């Protein structure tokens, strides 16, 4: 049973039911809808399709709606601009005109106030590098530092510059509302800069009576500066290496990834390593050796999930990509992990109870951990400690909670009805595991559940051997 979860971004390459079905059978745990590209009508069509196919295959699948965030883009061009090193390019805001041969509009009116002469501007995933020479109220004059072709609607990165765009744009708010209407399990917040941004999204979700969890995407220097507060405030973290690798010096990226994964595991926050894991498979059937090693590294570090972007949204080999992640993750998990959970921070008595169960499971042969949950907390506490070998069977009292567990490292979520008597609930869980052949005679079950004693409920750890 694979412990590292797989997230696939959907797009034109994967929207058809037959491909979606293969991605689910292949082991996808979470589908991501990228609102930088997805249209609301498409989201309305794809969400019920995912739900139906997951139900057909009796698989819990979570949906992650990823907001565009405060992203700056260039506007439409009649023809691509063929830029040469040393050329001048002007960025203009709404309503202004440039006398230069090379100019392009930007979608953000405050752009000239946010940048200063000497700042670096990176366009189209860093492919075009420019330096700001001068600015006026409505124009920014830049020198092109490398020859390249500029197409329409390219993403702009401003490393180290504080952009004054709101944390949630009007588009993001509309997209989040759509996500809550469709009942997505996770909302990813792009370009989170500080803890306050997350609180704003949480208020919006609360107003919409949504239980969706917030995944903060770490993708620029502002987020790195507030990383500890962001990790505490969010429900999950994504190391969004696409933008992050442009916003920080590239050699810093592996160090930042490791620091974030380590901190998240210490604090018990689910963490996703995203982007470019199998980039070459957008075009090729086989990954490069370096890509396999990158995937293996994320699995070795025991990130909760690894995420495919372009590989599955527009790539030629989406199903093969999931196969590769599945194979590499399963093999690497058997070879051991980095052990960051050894310094896990335990904050309350429930977490300490879970810790004792994990110590017990680690000391037993053929151990399986069984945990029950109403809201998802206890399975997260178990996953937090990264048990050495035992799978974590998490029994949830509702399908919604079950789907929210899909992202957690090592957790196999199952839905059952809970009885008022915890012992009866344990019996139901045991028979589900037997029926699905997930346990066999001689297995040692380490069970974390409630017991009722003297009219009160207590957390309890017990061990039973399957007879
Ligand atoms: C990333 O930058 O790695 C990422 C996942 O964000 P997006 O694809 O939304 O730019």
Key features of this structure:
single chain; 467 residues; alpha/beta; TIM Barrel; M1 Pyruvate Kinase, Domain 3; Pyruvate Kinase, Chain: A, domain 1; 3 domains; eight-stranded parallel β-barrel; seven-stranded mixed beta sheet; elongated; binds phosphoenolpyruvate
Specify Rg, calculated over alpha carbons.
24 Å
Average pLDDT, to the nearest integer?
Answer: 96
Question: Got a strand count?
Answer: 22
**Considering the protein shown, what is the CATH homologous superfamily of the largest domain?**
Phosphoenolpyruvate-binding domains
CATH architecture of the largest domain: Alpha-Beta Barrel
Individual helix count: 16
Strand proportion, as a percent range, falls in 15-25%
**Terminal residue distance:** 22 Å
Largest sheet descriptor = 8 strands, parallel, barrel
CATH class of the largest domain: Alpha Beta
Distinct compounds present: phosphoenolpyruvate
Question: What's the CATH topology name of the largest domain?
Answer: TIM Barrel
How many structural domains can be distinguished in the coordinates? 3
Helix-strand category? alpha/beta
Helix content: 25-40%
* Low-confidence segments: none
Arrangement of strands in the largest sheet: 1-2-3-13-14-15-16-17
Q: How would you describe the shape?
A: elongated
Set out the fold topology.
Layout: E1 5-9, H1 17-26, E2 30-34, H2 40-56, E3 62-66, E4 72-73, E5 81-83, E6 88-92, E7 103-105, H3 111-114, E8 120-123, E9 128-135, E10 139-144, E11 148-150, E12 155-157, H4 170-182, E13 186-189, H5 195-207, E14 213-218, H6 221-225, H7 227-233, E15 236-240, H8 241-247, H9 253-267, E16 271-274, H10 289-300, E17 305-308, H11 310-313, H12 318-334, H13 349-363, E18 367-373, H14 377-384, E19 392-396, H15 399-404, E20 411-415, H16 422-435, E21 444-453, E22 456-465
Parallel strand pairs: 1-2, 1-17, 2-3, 3-13, 6-7, 13-14, 14-15, 15-16, 16-17, 18-19, 18-21, 19-20
Antiparallel strand pairs: 4-12, 5-11, 6-10, 8-9, 8-12, 9-10, 21-22
Bound molecules: phosphoenolpyruvate.
